[in-house]
Amino acid sequence: MNTLKLYLTSSIGKKVTMAATGLFLIVFLLEHLYGNVLLYFNDHGEAFNEYSHSAVRNIIIRIVEIFLFAAIIVHVIQALIITIDNRKARPIKYAAPSASGGSNWINRNMGITGSIILFFIVVHLYNFFLPYRITSMPNGMNLAQLVKAGFQNPYYVALYVISVTFLSFHLSHGFRSAFHTLGLNNKKYTPVWKMAATGFAIFIWLGFAPFPILFYFGIAGTTF
Question: What are the Cα distances from residue 117, in Å, to 17, 22, 162, 190, 220?
């Protein structure tokens, strides 16, 4: 037990925890994207509502949900700890980015992109998870209708698109960094992982960013 504690509190242990929780959250992100795609179906939102209701009734998914919230909390805490440790180790910032291109704005500001994403998660949960799972749905709406109503707010649509954009920036570095931390990277495969990370970040942006825009302009969700 003491050995595990020492490992998890070590520099490498903190980074491995960050990588593992980050990859777990990426899996959830893909599952969430699948659920969103169901809202494009011309079926009055039935596929999406049934998918959501099934998730609530499934005990395995409910357990995974607990791990999901725990992963978010651990990921955020570890990010803060690593950021503080790095600042203590290097109190004076570099005057300019490395000439080799090893550091860019995204790499140096993962804390900023992560903070924006965390803020969006809180707002997103407040708008949808809270009324659907804890309080009550407004005016007898089903979940698909609640999503459609939420995307009639231009401020929320803007926040959604901006947050997904920063999420893509965050993923472009975090995805590659996670595999590097877990020892699944070397000089030979660095270009491959870099391309994969960029491609995945673009895929996530294309999957999520148009979603609120299509609903706001009435292109999607016309049957519910």
Answer: 19, 13, 9, 27, 25
Six-digit token string for 105 = 């704005």
Query: Cα torsion for 130, 135, 138, 139, to the nearest 10°?
Result: 150
Which tokens in the block code for residue 198? 């960029």
Q: Which of 132-136, 161-165, 217-221 has the highest mean pLDDT?
A: 161-165
**pLDDT digits over 104-138, tens only?**
777 777 888 899 999 999 999 999 999 999 998 98
Query: How large is the average pLDDT for residues 51-72?
Result: 91
Residue 118: both structure tokens together: 């965390």
Please calculate the CA angle 116-184-68 and round it to the nearest 5 degrees: 40
Average pLDDT of the chain is 86
Residue with tokens 């999901």: 68
| Residue 17 to residue 1: CA distance in whole angstroms | 16
CATH of 7-90+104-216, picked from 1.10.10.10, 3.40.50.2300, 3.40.120.10, 1.20.1300.10, is 1.20.1300.10
Cβ distance 224 to 44 under 8 Å? yes
H helix or E strand, kind and range, residue 169? helix 154-181
Return the pLDDT at 18. 84
pTM score? 0.85
Assess contact for 220 and 214: CB atoms under 8 A: yes
Nearest to 161 by CA among 216, 91, 93, 107: 216
Cβ atoms of 137 and 131 closer than 8 Å: yes
Widest pairwise Cα distance in the chain: 58
Asked if residues 142 and 49 have their Cβ atoms less than 8 Å apart, the reply is yes
